[in-house]
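During the first year of the project, the team set up a workflow for recording each protein of interest as an amino acid sequence followed immediately by a discrete structure-token representation. This format lets reviewers and collaborators read both layers of information side by side without switching files. As required by the reporting guidelines, we include two representative entries from the current panel. The first entry is reproduced here exactly as it appears in our internal archive.
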Amino acid sequence: MPTRDRRSIDAASRLRIVVLGYIVRGPLGGLAWHHLQYVMGLAALGHDVYFVEDSGDSQWCCYDPVRDVTDTDPSYGLQFAATAFARVGLGDRWAYYDAHRTRWCGPAADRGPRLCAAANVVLNVSGVNPLRPWLAGAPVRVLLDTDPAFTQIRHLTDPDARALAAQHNAFFSFAENIAQADCTVPADGLNWQPTRQPVVLDAWPVTAGPAHGKFTTVMQWDSYPARTYGGREYGMKSASFMPYLDLPQRVGPIFDIAIGSATAPRDLLRAHGWVVRDSREPTRDPWTYRRYIQESAAEFGVAKHGYVASRSGWFSERSAVYLASGRPVVTEDTGFSSWLETGSGLLRFTALEEATEAIVRVREDYARHCRAARAIAEQYFDAHAVLQRLIDAALASPPAAQRSGGAAAVHLSDRE
């Protein structure tokens, strides 16, 4: 599924870009799309792009959804990655470093360290890869925070997380409100700039939506324990969902949600009218995930409590591809309504009554909301525009931030 090169850069502007991510270790459909669209979008711009993943040094690094275990064996994930990259036309553009066996894997394995050493830009998506020596010399080393508030709290409380962050010299966050007065994402001393999920629109074709279909989502009930910092609580989706437990009783049994995490109260949800399925069903690979979205009428979702409480402005990469597919999204407002058009195609809520009203509105004028959803994706999430801004801003980072290690950008005295 190669994407069309619509407005490619000229040869003089072409960069070697290494995208660091989490596909081999997290071989699930949604996670794969989250990372693939960076590689696909940058390649479509004309850059020389490679995806590189590192096992890290933990003994609990590779998830195998078939065995439902996490260990150091990347076998399942390597096959998953090979299939995914081949299907998007980038089959030779990835490598995996297995630190546990001191070996490189994947089609670019024999060139891995050399490719990394020659990179102009390293883009560390979610900061889940260490910067090994072959990456540390890249002139621009971008840390991309996709988990705002929680990332900053880790930097303020975990010396290892802080040390990894300090190896970067350009900092971007999905907290699009991070510079706004009402945003309470804790200040960790790093010069964060806003960014958002890129969507390769060609990979998400609009199909006719089932007007009487289900409102769906894929979610983790608890991703990890809630955090407390500066007297504020930053919780998970488990803290956000319960006020909407009775929604099926208000609008009907129209919800089908795919949930991960052992703590999810599945029996309670079913008793209140929610259809609950194992999240591994729709996320088996990128195409089962896309099909699940295409078979949905719309998305209904809540955000992590921490995103809402901090007024971060975060917006889900999953919701972005629902929109691109022409599926309306009804979702909890994290403050994104300050920068993202809402009301048609994308409807926000902060309470049960607002969620009920939004769902009714979508169902009453479904075709219009479907058209508006795609228009929002084209205006706000088009990978070409999102990634061009990201790369331009990274290259233009202040000289002080470009110093090795980014030490000039780190001020521990800025803690809240």
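The second entry, processed by the same pipeline in the following quarter, appears below.
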Amino acid sequence: MVALLTRLFLPMRSHFKSRARLEAENLVLRQEVSLSRKPEARVRLRNFDRLLVGVALPLFPSVLDAVVIVTPGDCDPVA
């Protein structure tokens, strides 16, 4: 009997929830889904990729000006 009443009243319960509560519940559920997914695999460089970079860098040396190497000490401690 309790299971029957639960099945009847659970769908109606969502009509009485506040919008903020529903948004918070959705946020928590999205967080759980994102944590359960596997991280994406790293991109692997193949020999052709390395050859392409080796040929392209001498032809376009200005590309190296766009590369910035960031070390942990370079970051703003407040951020």
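For the second entry, the following points were noted during internal review. The longest helix spans residues 19-36. The two ends are 56 Å apart (CA to CA). Both points are flagged for discussion at the upcoming steering committee meeting.
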